[in-house]
Design goal:
Elements: H1 2-17, H2 33-36, E1 38-46, E2 54-63, E3 69-77, E4 82-92, E5 100-106, E6 109-118, E7 125-129, E8 136-140, H3 147-159, E9 167-169
Antiparallel strand pairs: 1-2, 1-8, 1-9, 2-3, 3-4, 4-5, 5-6, 6-7, 7-8
Length: 177
C-alpha cells in the first residue's frame, strides 16, 4: 500500500501544478465573462505539439447550460490540407471576475489558462499564459494586428520572463480559393 501512496501523491502534485499560476504573473481582475466569449484569433504563440504546424488558428468560447465555457480551438494544417479541431471545456479557478481558468481537452485533466493582459475597455486583445512560461498566446478579435500591438505584446512578455526565441507569428491569411 505504501508504494501506491508514493505514486498517487506525486501524481496529484503534478496535476495540481498544471492548474496553478506562473510565479510572478497575476491574472487580470474585473473580467466580464460574457464579454470574453466569442471568437479570438491567435496572433502569436509559443508552439507545442498540439498546435504544431497549424495556421489560421481561432478559439471560440461559448457559455454552456451548466455554467462552464465550451472551448473550440480550430486551425489549418497546410501539410495535410485539412482543418484540425479540438473541443474542450473551461471553468474558472475561483472568482469568475479573475482571469484564471482551468481548461480541459482530455477528460478530468485540467490546465491553467491565465489571462494576464486584457484590453478591458474593448475586449479586443488578450495575452494568455499556461501554468508556466512555456505557454504563451497573443489573442485578438481580428485576424491581424498592427506592428505596434505586436511589439507591445513582445515587450510585456519579455518583462514577464517569457523566452521569445521560439515565438511563432500565426499566419491568419485567407486560404486560396
Amino acid at each position: 500500500m505504501k508504494s501506491l501512496r508514493n505514486l498517487i501523491l506525486p501524481a496529484i502534485l503534478l496535476l495540481s501544478a498544471c492548474t496553478g499560476l506562473p510565479e510572478g504573473i497575476d491574472p487580470v481582475s474585473g473580467l466580464e465573462k460574457e464579454r470574453y466569449l466569442g471568437t479570438w484569433y491567435e496572433i502569436a504563440r509559443l508552439d507545442h505539439s498540439f498546435e504544431e504546424g497549424l495556421s489560421r488558428v481561432t478559439a471560440e468560447y461559448s457559455l454552456t447550460d451548466d455554467g462552464t465555457i465550451k472551448v473550440v480551438n480550430r486551425g489549418y494544417d497546410a501539410q495535410k490540407e485539412e482543418w484540425s479541431e479540438a473541443v474542450g471545456k473551461a471553468k474558472f479557478a475561483g472568482d469568475d471576475s479573475i482571469g484564471h481558468l482551468e481548461v480541459s481537452f482530455f477528460g478530468p485533466f485540467y490546465s491553467s489558462y491565465v489571462i494576464f493582459e486584457l484590453d478591458q475597455p474593448g475586449y479586443q486583445f488578450a495575452y494568455v499564459s499556461g501554468y508556466n512560461r512555456d505557454y504563451l498566446w497573443f489573442l485578438s478579435r481580428t485576424p491581424e494586428v498592427s506592428e505596434r500591438q505586436l511589439e507591445a505584446f513582445r515587450e510585456r512578455a519579455r518583462e514577464e520572463g517569457f523566452d521569445l526565441d521560439e515565438l511563432i507569428i500565426v499566419d491568419q491569411s485567407p486560404l486560396p480559393e
